[in-house]
Specification:
7-stranded mixed β-sheet; alpha/beta; 123 residues
C-alpha cells in the first residue's frame, strides 16, 4: 500500500502510487545500505521525485520520446522534470517505437541486454 514501508527479510520495500492503472505501483527497495527505485509503467507524477530521492539507481520507464500519453512517461517530460530528481544514477527502460527511433537524441543511459553496473563503483 502506498505510503507504507514493509520489511521483507533484510530488504525494505516502499511502494508509491504511479499513474498507469488505478492500482499501479513503483517501488523503492533498500538492502545492504543501497537503494534502487523502479517506476514500472507510469505517466509523470510528483511521486517520482520522492521515489528517486538520493537512491543509488533509478530505473525509469520512458515509453515515448515526445508523444504525451495519459499512462506512459515521455522522455521530453522526464527531461523537463530532471532537475527535481536526485538519483546517483538514472537508467531508462521500456522504450516504445518512437523512443527507440529517437535514441540518438537521448543523453541518458538506456537499459539494454548485457548492460551491467556495480552499485557504488563511482560511475
Amino acid at each position: 500500500m502506498p505510503g507504507t514501508t514493509v520489511d521483507v527479510g533484510a530488504m525494505t520495500v516502499q511502494p508509491f502510487a504511479v499513474v498507469h492503472t488505478p492500482e499501479a505501483l513503483g517501488f523503492r527497495l533498500s538492502f545492504g545500505g543501497r537503494t534502487i527505485a523502479y517506476t514500472g509503467d507510469t505517466a509523470w507524477t510528483d511521486a517520482l521525485v520522492e521515489m528517486s530521492a538520493n537512491v543509488d539507481l533509478f530505473i525509469c520507464q520512458v515509453y515515448t520520446y515526445a508523444i504525451e500519453l495519459p499512462t506512459m512517461l515521455s522522455y521530453r517530460r522526464l527531461s523537463a522534470e530532471r532537475s527535481r530528481l536526485t538519483p546517483r544514477r538514472l537508467i531508462l527502460t521500456h522504450l516504445g517505437a518512437e523512443m527507440v527511433s529517437r535514441r540518438a537524441d537521448v543523453a541518458d543511459v538506456v537499459a539494454e541486454d548485457g548492460l551491467t553496473w556495480v552499485l557504488g563503483d563511482g560511475s
